[in-house]
Specification:
This protein is of the alpha+beta class. It is built from 7 helices and 4 strands. It has a 4-stranded mixed beta sheet with strand order 2-1-3-4, with helices on one face.
């Protein structure tokens, strides 16, 4: 049974697609947008409401890289490690961010769910390398120091 106080948008999203099974991917995209991940109890609810086996929903959710079954932070930092960014030293930036946020290769989200750090193969901004993306905003020609400044600014804005 879905806790609707925790997930109030879910039924509205499903209704927006008229509970149509063929809109599963679009539904999952909207739900992930609302919660930054796909909670298991929401997937179970979808299974019941649109009459699709839970295994089918999980296979879709795990097939596409953009879906996450793990909770993510409010700010999702994507650091590019494609060829151009890597050559321009994206790894020291990655290491600095990990250290600053207390993250490692198996822990990608801070305990307070403020930040999630992801490494991506390419952000399509090779001329601006090295690049990080924070909730869709591009930060170009980054250094470890400028990455720390971005994080500091976000933290300051959050504490206001």
């Amino acid at each position: 049974m879905l806790d609707k106080s925790k997930y109030p948008e879910v039924d509205g999203i499903l209704a927006g697609y008229a509970y149509n099974r063929s809109a599963l991917i679009a539904m999952l995209q909207e739900i992930q947008s609302a919660y930054n991940y796909l909670p298991e109890e929401v997937l179970e609810h979808i299974s019941t409401e649109i009459d699709i086996p839970l295994s089918k929903i999980f296979s879709v959710a795990t097939f596409y890289e953009n879906f996450s079954l793990e909770p993510k932070g409010k700010y999702i930092i994507k650091i590019c490690d494609g060829t151009a960014c890597h050559v321009k030293k994206s790894i020291p930036i990655l290491d600095t961010i990990k250290k600053e946020l207390g993250l490692n290769s198996s822990k990608h989200t801070t305990d307070d769910f403020l930040f999630t750090l992801e490494t991506v193969s390419c952000l399509g901004a090779c001329g601006l390398a090295p690049v990080i993306l924070v909730n869709g905003k591009v930060y170009a020609k980054m250094t470890p120091e400028s990455a720390l400044a971005v994080i500091k600014e976000i933290k300051e804005n959050e504490s206001k």
